[in-house]
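Data deposition worksheet. Section B asks for the primary sequence of the deposited chain exactly as it was used as input, without tags or linkers unless they were present during the calculation. Section C holds the resulting structure in token form. Section D is free text for depositor observations; keep each observation to a single sentence. Incomplete worksheets are returned to the depositor.
Section A, Depositor: J.P.
Section B:
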Amino acid sequence: MTQLSPSRHTLFSRLSRLPYWLLATLLLGVILLWNLLSDEDYSLIFGAVAKGVWITIYVSLIAFTFAVVIGLLVGLTRLSKYRILQELATFYVEVIRGVPMLVILYYIAFVGAPGLVDIVNWTGEWLLSKHVAGIGQAFADFSIRDLSFTTRAILALVIGYSAFLSEVFRAGIESVEKGQIEAGRSLGMSHWQTMRHIILPQAVRRVLPPLGNNFVAMLKDSSLVSVLGVQDITQLGKLYATSTFRFFETYNVVAFLYLIMTIALSLLVRYIEKKMPQRSNT
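Section C:
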């Protein structure tokens, strides 16, 4: 009876512990990778579509960074002791969450962006009236053409996802035991000091996994920016498919690229979840 070498035995042992869905995904990836390496058509498609990977990652990273910051501020505002601030933050969250992301993209690109330019122009004219020539002239001369569709797409994703992330932060903050707040106040800390030094560090650790999941979701939703002509993976795939009529092969490559990125990020999120210290129930 043939015995496996220790290295092969370890490899098969690790593979046997993998979930079936991951094994099926890896098999699918191997098949697509083989086609990319052996089929000239797939290689050409990959070369044309892969140029959009940088734009996809760039849009997702920039939008998610700003969405996290704004989401945290909105989440804190919803927990404010001033009712008017709570109501304004809640209004923002409920309205944005109730509108589809695609509609938000169109609205920001063709309604919000021109309105923002008008505000900038008005500010520039006001600065010029106050004899502030440099920045005033720059603001007054700013036009809608200076605001690229990539920037508008990022702005739309920031607005859309900041509403969802605000709920993640709010839930994380509220999950911290109230005794922690009382302990901070008993030490002479102000409300802001207690929130900054005691509550937020614990809340941020607890919301890291859902933040990671939301980043994966944003990476997939970034494909919507193709409707604005942004040269991401989806847009380049659509252009190549319509010019060559190779829809099957092209969208196989597009799906393969998204699959690689999202599965890699999902596995990273799961790894972080396992490495994070478990919350004590005491």
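Section D:
The domain at 20-275 is CATH 1.10.3720.10 (MetI-like fold).
The chain is about 80% helix and 0% strand.
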